[in-house]
Structure formats: C-alpha cells, structure tokens
From TrEMBL:
It comes from the Bacteria. This is Large ribosomal subunit protein uL30. Residues 4-54 form the Large ribosomal subunit protein uL30-like ferredoxin-like fold domain. GO terms for biological process: translation. Part of the 50S ribosomal subunit. The lineage of its organism: Bacteria, Pseudomonadati, Pseudomonadota, Alphaproteobacteria, Sphingomonadales. GO terms for molecular function: structural constituent of ribosome. GO terms for cellular component: large ribosomal subunit. The keyword tRNA-binding does not apply. The keyword DNA repair does not apply. SUPFAM superfamilies: Ribosomal protein L30p/L7e.
Length: 58
C-alpha cells in the first residue's frame, strides 16, 4: 500500500483536546516531526481535521 509523509507545522498548545488526541494518534506531538504512515481513508480524514497543524510532505 502507498505511504504518505506528514509533518507537524502547528503547536498543540491552546488547542482543543480532540485535536491533541488526533495528533498523538498520527504519531506526532512535537513541532517539525515527520512520520510516514499508510495512505488510508482514516489518515486522510485526520489530516483534513487538522489542516492548520499538519502538512503532507513530498
């Protein structure tokens, strides 16, 4: 299956708890961290919920 690289560009400070949980679920939590995940509908949905905090790299 295809892979997707996600980079955190926004801080979770002063964000709602559900947004922090989504970041942790993606394997992020610190600024400028990059993770490589399977390109699934669940991951794409999490990215769409946090367009101000994450970006797709590549």
């Amino acid at each position: 299956m295809a892979k997707i690289k996600i980079k955190q560009i926004g801080s979770p400070i002063r964000r709602p708890a559900d947004q922090k949980k989504i970041l942790i679920g993606l394997g992020l939590g610190k600024m400028h961290r990059v993770v490589e995940l399977e390109d699934t509908a669940e991951v794409r949905g999490a990215i769409k919920k946090l367009p101000h905090m994450v970006e797709v790299v590549e």
